[in-house]
Request: fold
Amino acid sequence: MRYLLFIWLLVLAGCAQSPSAGQLLDRYLNLSDAGMHEQFDQVLSGEAKQAALQANDIMAELNLEQVGETDYFDLEQISSNKWRFCMDVSETKILDQLGNDLTPEARPTHLPMTMTLESLGSTKKITELEIRRFENC
Reply:
């Protein structure tokens, strides 16, 4: 019986996979939308982490808050570690400390993006997030 349990644990350990690109992107957007920036280490590294933390610092300095839910669609792998997708920010707003909506009226609701993933140790993380300028969703 002990051997059966041991074999079952080995099978479970072998089945544990690193998260997919979609799962990492979901986790990052959920953390960002919830304001849980201290947990970005779970999914971000390198330039992506630096840019996200810098953006949050700027928002804090200006006493602004992001509210709403960010989503994405059309996630497509374009190389071994790079994905293209469209980020949907149509339900995301920028509010000042009084609750006034300061979201620019001309802000696009969908942003064409690329994302790079790298394996860091035994886990994958997002290392780059870039807007694909001059492209459409």
Notes: The beta strands are 65-68, 71-79, 82-88, 92-95, 110-120, 123-131. DSSP finds three helices and six strands in the chain. The longest helix spans residues 46-61.
